[in-house]
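Dissemination and training. As part of the outreach component of the grant, students in the summer workshop were shown how a complex can be specified as a set of sequence lines and then modelled as a single object. The example used during the hands-on session is reproduced here so that future cohorts can follow it. Participants entered these lines:
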Amino acid sequence: KAGVTQTPRYLIKTRGQQVTLSCSPISGHRSVSWYQQTPGQGLQFLFEYFSETQRNKGNFPGRFSGRQFSNSRSEMNVSTLELGDSALYLCASSVRTSGELFFGEGSRLTVL
Amino acid sequence: GNSVTQMEGPVTLSEEAFLTINCTYTATGYPSLFWYVQYPGEGLQLLLKATKADDKGSNKGFEATYRKETTSFHLEKGSVQVSDSAVYFCALSFSGGGYNKLIFGAGTRLAVHP
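and obtained this result:
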């Protein structure tokens, strides 16, 4: 069974640009969550989607957005990038809301 | 607010040593508690969980007991192996906030030497 797949794995952007990250969940998983991991702030919850609806949102500015498609694949977008957005962005999928998440390896974003 | 505090690493042990990684939490209400592990080059994996006070989660020789009186969820293993070298994260979530909205601790790196 394929795991959670995130693309791209690495990317470099400059300040002011925008970026879109993609996540394909495990087959049959309808919930997709996104987390940001940085050395300073650790792992922080961004948002969760279930059946194409945002169910939960973390404490991030509106520059961070996401969506989920009918096949459960999800994308997150960060507009007007800032240096502080440099991080590992992790996607996780789950069958239900139980806290049992299956994480991908992440997309490492560097903002110059 | 709600938060999780873990002991700072790295924790360095010899093979077959006893492991304890401390985790305490601050929460309004009664959260579910989790331990996740991140092996080198891999995504996080759920190691074990406990959903109510006095529950014991266990998996792969690891154990943790939900202690409401001390607001703790310490991770233990009787005999570690080199393959246990990884970063361990303690986390909590609430049913009202959505169980998949996890609040993580900073992580504790474990290095086990032969």
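The CA atoms of residues 69 and 89 of chain B lie 21 Å apart. Students were then asked to discuss how this feature might be tested experimentally.
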